[in-house]
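User: Hey, quick favor. My workstation is busy. Could you predict this chain's structure for me?
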Amino acid sequence: MSAPRQLPDTMDELIADCAGLPPVLTQRRPELPLPRLPKPWRVDEACHAQVADLDEYV
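Assistant: No problem, here it is.
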């Protein structure tokens, strides 16, 4: 088992420590695709039929 790493005391030590990051952590990952835009919502006959007689209940 390796000894615990000592925390850097100065900014120079911190920068040197960060320069040793493994490449897997610094490689660019592919960007995610943009989300698809939803189709415009339209009132069709089936939707309209659900509320056609709503005035009678209000």
